[in-house]
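Follow-up to my post from last week.
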Amino acid sequence: MRPENYEAQRHPPSNEFELNFGPNHPGIEGNYALKVKLHGDVVVEAKADGGYLHRGFEKLMEQRLWIQNIALVPRICVPDPSPMEVCYAVAVEELCGLEVPQRAQWLRVMQLELSRIAAHLFTFGGHAATTGMYSTMYWGVADRDLILDLFEEFTGGRVYSIYNIPGGVRRELPDGFLQRVSETLDYIESRLPDYDNLFFKNQVFVKRAKGTGVMSQEQALAWGVTGPNLRATGLAFDVRRDDPYLVYDQLDFEIPTEAHGDAWSRTLVRRLELVESIRILRQVVAALPDIAGPIRAPIPNPLAWNVPAGEVYTRVESSKGELCYFVVSDGGPKPYRVHVRGPSSMHAVQVLEKMSVGSRIEDIAQTMFSLDACPPEVDR
Amino acid sequence: MMAPMELIIELILMPLVAFVVGMMMVLMMRRIAAKLQRRIGPPFFQPLYDIVKLHSKQTQISHGLIHDIGIVMAMGGYIAAETLLPVPGMTGIAEKGGIITLLYLMMIPSLGLALGVGQCANPNGSIGIARALTAMLAYDIPLVIVIFGVAYAAGTTNLVDIIAVQQAGGFETWGAVQMPVLAIAGLIAMHASLGKQPFEIYIAPAEIATGPMVEMSGKYLGGLFVMQCFQLYTTSVLYVSLFLGGGTTWFDFLLKSFLVLAIPVSIAYLFPRYRTEDLLRLMWKWPVMLGLIGVAFVL
Amino acid sequence: MSQELTHWLDDLLEEIEGIKIRRKSSRRVRADVPADALPALLELLQGRAGYIHLSAISCVDWIEDDEFELVYHVWSYESHSLVSAHIRIAREPGVYLSVYDLYQPAGFFERDIHEMYGIHFEGSPNMEKFILTEWDGPPPMRKEFDSEAYVNEHLNWQEYNPPWLQELIAEGGGVIIPPEEQRFSRKKD
Amino acid sequence: MTLTPLDELLLFSGVTVLVAMLLGRRLPAGWMVTILYGIQLLALMKMAPLGYGGEAISSALTFKVMGQTLSWRFDALSWYFALITLGSALLSSWYACGEWEQRFRQSGGNLWLFHFAMTLNVFSMLILLASGDLLSLFIGWELVSWAGFLLMAMAGGVATKAAMRYITYAMAGAMAIFGGIALVYVSAGSLQYEAILTAASQMSTAHLWMLVILFGAGFGIKMGLMPFHLWQAPAYAETPGPGSAFLGAISSRMGLFAILLVLVKLFGIVNIDSLKIPFTLIDARDLLAWIAVFTIIFPTFTAMKQNDARQLLAWHGIGQGGYMLLGLVVADAMGAAGGLLHVFNHATYQAALFMAVTAVIHRTGTADLNKLGGLVVRMPLTFMVLLVGIIGLAGLPPMNGFVSKWLVYRSLLNEGMPLLFVAAVIGTLGTILSVYKLIHNIFLGQLRVEHDKVKEAPWSMMIPMLILAAIIFITGLLPGIPLAWVASVQQAVGLPVPDYTLGGVESASGSLDMIWVIGVLFAGFGIGALIFYFAGGRSKRVHQLDNYAGGHFLTADVRYQYSDNFYAGLMHLIGGWYRGSFLWLEQSVKSLVEFLSLGMQGLYRRANAEFYLLSTALFVIAWVVI
Amino acid sequence: MSSIKQIPVITERKGNPLARVFDEFVRFCRSRSLFILHYCTGCGAIELPPAMTSRFDMERLGIQPMVSPRQADILLITGYVSIKTLKRVILTYEQMGSPKYVIGICSCTVNGGMYWQSYATAKKLDEYMPVDLYIAGCMPRPEAVLAGLQKLMDRIHSGEANSWEDYFRNYDYYLGNQQKLFGENWQTPTDIITEAKHYDLIGEGTLGKHTQLLEQHQKPLEALDMRLGHDLKEPTE
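User reply:
Got it. Predicted complex:
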């Protein structure tokens, strides 16, 4: 295939010109592209171009055993993999009618919230780097590494933990782990004022972020925006509270919102969520020693496990928004169909395209990073 | 009139010194960044490794003759500018040009780079150059006000004389002591002329993929690295000559230069970048105002 | 509160003929509708019951029935419940109506289903390829497309044992892990 | 009666007009006219001692009209301006010969009219420069105005409209001058320079104010000074190629000549300095200086917004006039030298720039900056000329524009005028920005596919351009050559003279030696080239489409050239000011002037160019006699 | 200073000791200054920020990220490459300046990893471009990445890391695999054969039946040379 055209007779008469944002571009998150048409420095047309990370997950999952897929799903969203496992495991459990032990549910909450903190720290770093402040990125990624250390000890994997299996979790906590979680949380909490001074209260950053990539609440609802991006427009909606899963209905946390719906609000919502996640984790750390019992329900031989026929739609709040799995079983050893609805499939395509038009070239990267779009979720 | 041989040696030595000191300044900049970012930073000879490596690349991708000439102009303009910048014991041809000529010679590299980048036919590069020239418009206005003030106060545009006037009475006759307002305005303008955050509008990797540098490979990029060494050196030494009394010995000269440079560099890594118009607004508001007040004191 | 609302929903849904409602849990409702009644249902749900968020459109390829199943998951921020509306359309020619007018997110999902299954949605704003722009094979998510056979035909992946790996194994590293360590990683002592 | 060298010059010039008029329809007319310009230049060279402090040469011809003696004479000032006039006329005419002429005829242009208008312009300018009293000055002035109108109007269409606007302004200016002359006659009783010189020192303040305003406005219109600048850019830009090079180089400098002659030489800058504006701290000289500074800034920044290469250059022509006036008004040795030197320098690079742009139009058919790009690989010599020109225009070393601007800056610094200094620098920076836009959008960036087969400009056009480029560089390297002429001009009009050397200026408070500066600069380039070519490997050329685009493949049918709204970031801040203040100013001045001259415009609207010529002659004679 | 270009990376001649020292110096500098291309081709890229930032700090080894392929020395293939990405990766690889190094991070680059069944990903990276180093794992930890980079530094220093020459010498093989995957009329803007001649790296495998196929389809993009244009036809207007 000859990829493109190297011959032409004339150029278009328009004064607009084309600029390719990505896939190899520091202003784009991951391996993704945005083709923009510019007039001066104002975008007149933006076209998202995905598929660079397409691996055909949904096809692959139809070809593998139910238990094998647990290893596959976290790879769908790299910065925040844990919700993927949990969401899939919950779906299989619902199909089988498995009762998950309490302790396993609390452990899953711990995993999810640790993952959320890690993902948010990473996002701050990325967002700061698009505006040229690399110090925040260096700090944020280094502090995220502490959480990855916890993951490593906790689940055995730094990034992809593959900790869940249908019916429960894979491993019991190591000795003294809760103590180390508390220490890490203390440390991260002690770092938050530094982050505030460096980043969130930095007047230059505030000037850049305020008014950038604005969407109103009506627009957000019409465009299918979810998660922190929706909360930044003032709607307090969170799957954890409003469509609860695991043991979130037993936990005490708040849903931070911001009113303006711009990059600044979105970042601030994440910053406030970080505190809420720490609060949830402290409750989990306090509660876990008292919750005894097994960490997984007995399941049949996973290599010859026919899950009853049926379909289920499960929803989890990932750090980026509403993550859903639609799983269909025909009663066989492999899923008949798995549909992954990542939150970024909205944010990175339609919303980004719409918000880019009329914005300026310097704000494209900031818009994308403040939406916290995750291309592998789109491409699957 | 000095002996011609001596002059030729000076003319060769001055850019050479500037290059070596400039590399150390690059190292210092990267080390300061590393300290602020809680890490170790590059090894001592890293700037040298980078430059040698880039020049030794096998592939040197050129988009045409102007691309080559642009880099030559960028390097050559600074090499020439160094000979107009007196250092302890060496004045070069500083008396033949004066500070206005120096200021204009420092624009030659920008123009050269602009031409070279222009031929790359990369929109990122063109946007970067448009922004770089806009930034030049922003910071050169306070800079010339400051230079006007200093030159008027000293009664000469000759840098050698300006330094001599400051060194006449020890610490009290330094420009920074005599004209503190101008010195502050000069520092801000100097920070902007370095093109570091928050004034880093024309590199902006996340926006325009390093702008002017986008199509530079091998020795082209190496030339820009060399240019950066010269740029850091020229800017800080110019400031030292205007406000901190130049140097009587090499030790205090280098000490002052490095200290002066450390100020903007330390600030730079704590800020994101401005938008172009915010940069213009900032530069045309505060340093210009301070500069004019400073000039009013001088007149 | 949500109970009341969803009972009200049940009444509402009776307005459409041929609809089958199954309440799976307090927050999940499954509705099976004839294909031509879906737009009316969605309009009703959106306009009168507050189901304004289209969470996803899923497609299932029932190759044995020679049918595609399209599932529209809509969520209400008011009653906190999710309705999954299932319809079935014929596999050939695989054409259906777009619901973009009602739900803008449908634009992406319909585009996605178009390239993965080859279903054409009439009235969808953009039916261009998005992910598989450089793919000229059949729509890959259809059941008849055999991914493994495609890979065997086009790509080399088997029997990969390069010299460097052999060296590594000879040195005692690489993929060989003693069996006792294969199941769990090291225990803490 | 023996012919003095001045008579010979004017005779030759008249012969040139006749030749163009009689033989202008034939093809070799261009070459003949060019040769005749050369002869005129030789005749001027016979008066070369004028440029080095020689005695004034008068014409043998004198008239007596109504008790007034009409006389013509050449001194250093006239000689300096005549040199520039004839030089640019020669090169422009040379440039027009050959392929440009053929293309011009093919596309329906009136070649006879072009040559005739050019020769007439030169002749009338020489008459003006040679004027020996105010009356002959006025006659020359009118001739120049109408000859210029002829050249501007000949392209038809938009050009006629622009020319109408010009002549409206010019007539208004002429009236002001006429009023001034009448006033002088009343107070001095004579229009001879010597009489005015003595009378000026005894004039009352009010009288002097009146004269400064009348003459300043009258001459300022021709020069395109700030409130009266609006006619110039469209008029010059629409003139056919070589004509615009000639007009851009010298035409509006006639205003400066007259200002120098009347305000500086006759009234004396010291007298003007004593004119205080009540209740403010500024005097008439400051007023002129500020007018000059605004003339620098506003047109320069207007130029930055232009999307047509010729318009851009024409606006810069106005802006550069401000530097000349600024230098003259500062009126110390360096400033005046800088201002006068800038006349010469500006003529060289402005002509070169217009010629280069015309060459681009000749080959591509457009001067729209958004429809060009990447031509450097197809027209490298034109690129080089344009590059030399813009470096001169921007006032960067090593070209000649740097020297004159350096002198102006230096004088402002010496005199302690920070605001004027800063304003001048803002003008220079704006110039750098806008000329980069010019060269980038024409020659750099992506080559459009339809321009792939474009050729270099023909040699008949290339040689004058290269000569001009050489002059720009040589006078930058050795500014002492033109500074010698400038010095004698300064002596002639009674200004102090700087201590110049071959390479620049000597001064106790900082001197300039361009030989050293350029030497070091080129040594720097040499070392840079040495490092570049010998320390690094051999380069590999790649096609433009083999380019970084975020990992994408580029295609030939897409435009990747960033050209429109080039300084978008800057415009986000100052774009509103354009709409606000610039347009407001333009509208108000325009409506005022055009309202006043509405009737006059209506008179001439429907006639053709030949009619204008005839009526001009009649009109001038009638005006003078009555 | 003699031209560096004339001195090949691996030199057999031991004649001039000064040249040998100089050669050693250049190789040392090359190994101590590595610019990584900032291109996240896959999920392994998530472990690069930790390796770059404060905790592991790549810069202390002289390694720093760069934006455009022109500036970079190392192409990190961080994980699976989908076929769409592979085209961009090959373009990017060809745009990079030699000496250039490719590191395959993650198991997927070795043999397809867990996506061995996937229709959308390429399995063996070294079929399409020469790979200097593989860092296996899913995904390798930052320590492993750094260890791998240090290994590469050693190899550069000792002159072993010259796989980029292999791309020119065996272009036919690589092109054949690319054509098998992307179709027969696949081409990139870079003309590798001319480039191989430029470096004098034409080997036995440079030309073959695949390059013949390429030449049938290719519209070679020759550089726009500067010319006065007198040999051209009349301009079109």
